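Please, structure for the following, as tokens.
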Amino acid sequence: MDGNRDKAMDWRTIDGFRRELGQCLRHFDPCFARREGREHLRRYVGGQLSALPRKNVEAIADDAGVPPRTLQDFLATHTWDHPRATDRLQQWVAEQHHDPRAIGLIDETSFAKRGDHTAAVQRQYCGATGKIDNCVVSVHLGYAAFDGRFRCLLDGRLTLPQSWADAPFRRQQAGVPDELEHQPKWRIALDLLRRALGNGVRFNWLVFDEGYGCCVKLLEQLNAMGQSYVAEVPAHFHGWLLPPTVLQKQHHVRRTGRPRKYPRLAAKSLPACHVQRLCRHSYPMRDQLWQTFHVKNTHQGPVLRRAKAARFRYRVDGQTSSSTCGGASGGEALPSAPCWLIVAHNVLSDEIKYFVSNAPAGTPLEILLHVAFSRWHIERLFQDDKSLLGLDHFECRKWQAVHRHFVLTAISHLMLARRRLKLEARGEKTAVDATAPPRRRCVHSGRRPPSRASP
């Protein structure tokens, strides 16, 4: 995605939507016991959809002609069911925007903050500033139709650092629930996924970057759930292209020494190797011809990627630990169930990316690449929500207030996404359509016809 050319929906489109906004927001009325809460919902969402340069509570309240304190209390202390609002948003997407080939998007974003009173704030890597900075980080789950015509955020949650989990006074001051404990980001992502599934949302695919793809525990959980995924993995991700021999039981009794544990690798099995070396030197990849795919067009020209895919088994135990993964269990390194290893080479930039997928054997390589490079949808969601709806403009400090802001911003974006679909159905174009890059549909451009993803 070309960030310099890719702009958010224009304000003329948003102004034309105001007439329909009140009717759409009635879907969330059951989340509020009092009329004042429903009115505050309309003020807050209306402020996020306005042309205000700053979308904090004070600016929205001034524009609506109400005291800022009323909207501050609406976020922090008023009694209304924001988890139910999230459930209703997800149920609405499942009922009215179901796509049998939908892609689920897992990613995180950060918000630079000053001071140390905002819930979950600490010095850590901040993607918003590109350096170690004082910030909060949140994990989000997004939804995108396979053709890219509809996308929205479904849920989001702050990550609670260990330093906050071990500080009762700070937790109390910021309103962090007593039962909440520190969780690695991949577990938060898994909780968000399970909640969406419980509300009827179904993903044909799930995609995430190498920060989550390196976590074998996450991959194994998704396998157990029957959820298909295409996960980017780092070059040092370990596994086998040639399946090793696994001994399942002891064939003779050892009279001396420590008893061996089973299952385990046979003594002469090759050790797991990182995927970068496997793709260069192991014959299932080395002897396979590259296939060329046209991914998209940019102002610099077409983006072409050469790709290969082969059956692969990643290392389940003994995996290199990661801060995102929350470490890994020790023990004998064993191969996973068969999956795909995909290597994609950008012809223009010479960049090489690696992906693993539990897609069934025979899945076309074009489909795997399309899903693998669909992460731009959630990057675009973050971009639009921050630049257009004020996702990063919040100045509240309480745990509940921040999460209510996330829910309200997701509702505002859903309103825009529905408006966009209506305009497209009438044949109208918005600014976002005129400037966005072409759909990332991988088109095979080699001499031979597209083949199945097989070595």
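The chain is about 35% helix and 20% strand. The two ends are 30 Å apart (CA to CA).
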